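cron nightly-structures :: item 1 of 1
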Amino acid sequence: MTGLSFILAGMLAAATPFLLAALGELVVERSGVLNLGVEGMMALGAVVGFIVVYHGAGHVMGFAAAGLAGMMLALIFGWLALGFRANQVAVGLAVGILGQGMSSLIGNSYESLTITGLPKLSVPVLSDLPVVGGLFSQDIVVWLSLLVTLAIWAMFRYSHLGLVLRAVGENPQAAHAIGYRVIALRYGAVMFGGAMAGFAGAYAATVYTPLWADGMIAGRGWIALALVVFGTWLAGRVFFGACLFGAVSLASLVAQTEAWPVPSQLLSSLPYLVTIIVLGIITSNKRLLKENGVASLGEPFGK
């Protein structure tokens, strides 16, 4: 397998933790809420999902438990940020630290243990193509994440719910004035985002690298947050960005195995360097941010 075929074969799987968490955060931010606790929700979802699968309950139950754990942590964030109108940045950081601390505590006795991942489902004929065939041989979670991406894109573009969420994010006072329950809608968005972060963590710990190691999320939650800005709050662009970061993370592995004359520390930091560069480029384009940004993002709502 060449370096290119290796990257293409693993790109979607490497992108899936980023994609699931970023899609959840996209819905949250579209409603006008900024949740910086994604990293902690992913970490808690990862350890809960791993423990459930390790004890024989299966991947479906593992993902369900991870989503519930992420949702409960998101509910704490929502209770403080929406119920008490606390500063969303401060609360998000605190909840993220709480999730990471809980994951370390709960997973201490499971350190370095492994489980069996999920088999790959291949598309006939296409999976046999040279170089690009690996793209069409993925586990079921990857295929489902593509459907979720399409569903969220369609929701914001065509559905009444998507229109209402966008209205709540743009002008919550106007949405409240015409009868929409702004706080309830934001609670729903926050809990959906927490569940998606939990799913992302479960995928990382039970499928992509089916083992538990403290700190294994390794900044994926922060990259997912950056992906929402990178995608300018549009699901299609978020998907493209997740694939880009998945490919970059695999490219660093290819470079190390092929002994490129580049320090390994620099190669390992490539995804984070790309994040910084891309965010700098995107945020410098004021017109793009104004067209697709969320007007009330991070601002508390009071009747």
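cron nightly-structures :: done
The radius of gyration is 19 Å.
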